[in-house]
Write a structure and sequence with these properties.
141 residues, mainly alpha, Arc Repressor Mutant, subunit A, two-stranded antiparallel sheet
């Protein structure tokens, strides 16, 4: 029986996942961080997206999102185009470089998922997901 507190187990899991995905991606060489990864995935899933959509979805302040988007534009992963319906906002979309990087991220996440789930049954995975969602919901209350 493991006597480690649940919070410590979760923290260790998150740290190990973060370390593993960064290693898989060679993140330092690419100049990519966790928010870049999340934002690339979000932009790929949402064809029409504004900076405000990102701020709301990730519960981040607009200034933080503006810095993130500037970095992504500087890396040539994202491009801004004027919103024809609202001159105060812009649409964001992935460039070809951004799409290629998103594909690399997807591949790395897929490989890591296979490794992480390696010796678990479908039933164990479903039970883990069920419990993790309950823990997450408890923290939101």
């Amino acid at each position: 029986m493991n006597t480690k507190p649940i919070a410590e187990i979760i923290f260790d899991l998150v740290l190990e996942y973060k370390f593993s995905i960064r290693s898989c991606l060679k993140a330092n060489e690419l100049g990519i961080n966790g928010m870049h990864v999340k934002c690339l995935s979000f932009l790929r899933e949402n064809d029409v997206c504004t900076p405000n959509d990102i701020a709301v979805y990730f519960s981040r302040d607009k200034a933080q999102v503006a810095r993130l988007i500037k970095e992504m534009i500087d890396h040539k992963w994202v491009v801004k185009t004027p919103n024809p319906n609202d001159k105060r906002s812009n649409f964001l979309s992935l460039t070809n470089n951004g799409i290629e990087l998103a594909n690399v991220v997807d591949q790395a996440q897929s490989e890591l998922r296979i490794k992480m789930e390696g010796n678990l049954t479908e039933q164990e995975l479903e039970e883990f997901k069920r419990i993790a969602i309950i823990l997450q919901d408890n923290l939101k209350q």
